[in-house]
Design goal:
The protein has helices spanning about 5-10, 20-35, 45-50, 60-70, 80-105, 110-125, 140-150, 165, 190-200, 215-230, 230-235, 240-255, 270-280, 300-320, 330-335, 350-355, 365-370; strands at about 175-180, 205-210, 260-265, 285-290, 325-330, 360-365, 375-385, 390-400, 405. It is an alpha/beta fold. The chain has two domains: about 1-135, DNAb Helicase, Chain A (Orthogonal Bundle); about 155-410, Rossmann fold. A nine-stranded mixed beta sheet has the order 3-2-4-5-1-6-7-8-9, sandwiched between helices. The chain is elongated.
Length: about 400
């Protein structure tokens, strides 16, 4: 209220709930509102805005606002003081999170997994990194960017299995949350297993595939079918010829040293995902599929999924790896004449679209019309790419081999 410069420095650092006293939270929220609207901020404007909101008396009245500013000897240390408040607020929230966790643990409510998931979410919400720390000059950032360009091989990220897709989508970069979404049976699980197989076997990168829908045996049959080009039905029915066994043996050799870890824990939460990252140190983690994950049971499901997708994004960023998750679409495509999926079809929560860096929507014409002239084709519709273009890539699905290939390779 005394210095526009100090307010500009402090505004990105503090939020209202960083203040312990409700009155101070209300006053700070008022200051931020005026600042956001581009209005002048001083004792009179703050008091006027609080009066309009019927909150001036509740915060102590105009005399209290004057008392606050009269106690300030200098505004030059405002940013330092703001960081002290932020630090103390974080400590306070951590204490509250620990207390709530202890109360639930003692009460015996819920499962241990539910309790652990809630504790992680509470702790994650308690800490918000200071946006002002780590900022560097443009010249420093330019040097880092040029260094990466000088040795691109070390910073290529994880490539997609399909050449045509790589022409549209950037490599899967550390910190990214990527969604492969589609209706049930459209091939999203095939796509995710294909990504896991290609990245581990053909790129030599460490992969963790968390399968919530299929067992490890089912996943491995798909991988063997795709790698050996043996019909999946032959493996399931064990109708194997000598030639088939030869192909399977060759595929087994390729898989021998492939750094691919397949997990089929039935109910996976953020705690489990973080644990698998700590254990295996993957270059990419894949989750099939998102709506089957374990979410916070204490809140409504939509909110729980939003919390989970946000936690996935924060995990990808903090652990420094891309996370690719399959996601189920709602019934929107069935209601349209062309049946093509849209971002709005993401089932149950808009948090999926908001938190994801990349959203790929899968569309199979023969899913709706087996006699379609485009039978055998699958469109990868890039509905969102935070740092690149959108567009559609047409591939060929070979579901009998549990894989998807480039159109040119067919």
């Amino acid at each position: 209220m005394l210095s526009p410069t100090a307010l500009t420095d402090v505004a990105p650092v503090l939020t209202g709930d960083d203040f312990h006293l409700p009155a101070h939270e209300t006053i700070w929220d008022t200051i931020l509102t005026l600042h956001t609207l581009g209005r002048p901020v001083d004792v009179l404007t703050v008091a006027s805005h609080l009066t309009e909101a019927g909150a001036l008396k509740r915060v102590g009245g105009a005399p209290y606002l004057h008392d606050l500013i009269s106690g300030v000897t200098t505004t030059s240390n405002a940013l330092w003081h703001a960081r002290i408040i932020r630090d103390q607020a974080t400590r306070r929230r951590l204490v509250l999170a620990a207390t709530r966790t202890e109360q639930l643990a003692v009460s015996g409510e819920g499962t241990a997994a539910d309790l652990a998931a809630m504790a992680v979410q509470e702790v994650t919400a308690a800490y918000r990194p200071d946006p002002m720390i780590g900022a560097t000059l443009a010249g420093d950032l330019a040097d880092e960017a040029l260094d990466r360009l000088e040795s691109p091989a070390a910073d290529d990220g994880v490539r997609w299995p399909w050449t045509d897709v790589n022409h549209v989508l950037n490599p899967m970069a550390p910190g990214n949350l990527l969604l492969v979404a589609g209706r049930p049976g459209c091939g999203k699980s095939v796509a995710l297993v294909d990504i896991a197989r290609h990245v581990a076997v053909h790129q030599g990168k460490t992969v963790v595939l968390q399968s919530l829908e299929m067992s490890t045996e089912e996943v491995m049959l798909r991988i063997l079918s795709a790698e050996a080009r043996v019909p999946l039905s032959d493996l399931q029915h064990r109708t194997l010829s000598a030639e088939t066994w030869k192909r399977l043996t060759d595929a087994r050799v390729k898989l021998q040293d492939a750094p691919l870890h397949v997990l089929d824990t039935p109910a996976v939460g953020i705690v489990d995902i973080r644990a698998s990252i700590t254990r295996f140190h993957p270059d990419v983690l894949l989750l099939d599929y998102l709506q089957l994950a374990q979410v916070n049971p204490k809140v409504e499901r939509r909110q729980g999924l939003e919390e989970f997708t946000r936690a996935l994004k924060l995990t990808a960023k903090s652990e420094g790896l891309p996370i690719v998750a399959a996601a189920q679409l709602g019934r929107g495509p069935e209601l349209r004449t062309d049946h093509r999926p849209q971002l709005s079809d993401l089932r149950e929560t808009g948090g999926l679209e908001n938190d994801a860096d990349v959203v790929v929507l899968m569309f199979r014409p023969d899913y709706y019309d087996p006699e379609s002239a485009r039978a055998g084709e699958v469109d990868m519709i890039v509905g969102k790419q935070r740092n690149g273009p959108t567009g559609t890539v047409t591939l060929i699905h070979q579901l009998h081999y549990a894989r998807i290939v480039d159109a040119a390779a067919f």
